[in-house]
Model the fold of this input.
Amino acid sequence: MPPDVSAVVVNHQSVAECADCVRSLREEFSRGGIHGEVLVVDCASGPAEVERLAGLAPDALLALPENRGYSGGLNAGLARARGPRLLLCNADVVFLPGAVPKLLESADAPGVGAAAPLACWDAEGLLYLPAGDPPGFLSELVRGAAARSPAIERRQFASFARRTIRLWRAGGRTQQLVGAVLAARREVFDRAGRFDERFAFEYEETEWEDRVRRRGFELRFVPQARVRHLWAVSASRNPDSSRRREESRRRYREGRFGRLGRRLLDRAGRAPRRPAAAPIAHPELAARPGAWLAISPNASCIPFAGTPLSRDFRLPAEVAASLRPGTWYLRAFSEQDGRPLETFAWEKRP
Done:
């Protein structure tokens, strides 16, 4: 008897995180009375890691001889999956109680092409990860222009912040979902196709979601479904991540906006950025009623992880340890209208 849902977990040198992911999926299937299967796809992590993954006893283990990236790992899993509903995720995700039934309920709704959960960064679940950053030629061009105009930068951030908080709180229809976790029906893949493996790192879900929306489906963000995502942990283990991300960005921009459009966006993105950010020695801010905190490696603070500043904030130790060295920006902004209040810069040392 085929399962009701097939969960495809893509792993690359993340066996410890993958073990937690598989365990959380099985617990969710048991709690929800769901007949599900778990497929683990390993992207060329090596024989020792494959042996450890086999010890997790997934319903199927696909050991790819080469690293085909997240898109290739998902495609390999999709080819083997037997369920009519599909749950696709990174290995560094833990499903919190009730997440899977809520995601499947949303993905089953007529007209929905894919659904994604609210992802938390910390163990307490207080620091929310970005709900998505819809690409658009004008918005990306304006983002480049914002480097030269503080007024434009403030307006653009406020608009993004309002949209992000709305999604975190109420969810609903959106233009782009983060691909760390996606739930979808098989029929959506039958109509929109699988992932484009030319996107070696990132943008694979964005390009696929473009095709999904062109076929009349909507994308839905589901804050009632929550996961913990150890964001950037697995990417930090691959020294080639930055190059592959840049290649994917260029490919996506050229495919959607043309060669000239891509060049204009690349040029705008190289604009010097000198944000008015006060240096701080530690990633912490005092409570500020009526404000939220944004944390981002980008000077624009877009996209950002966020949390209400209803109490004193200090970046959790497990999150701080996972961050790449460099400048991280912390911005307090108005909960009511998204207006930036103060911006700080913290240097993460190696």
Summary: Residues 4 and 83 are 5 Å apart (CA to CA). The longest strand covers residues 218-229.
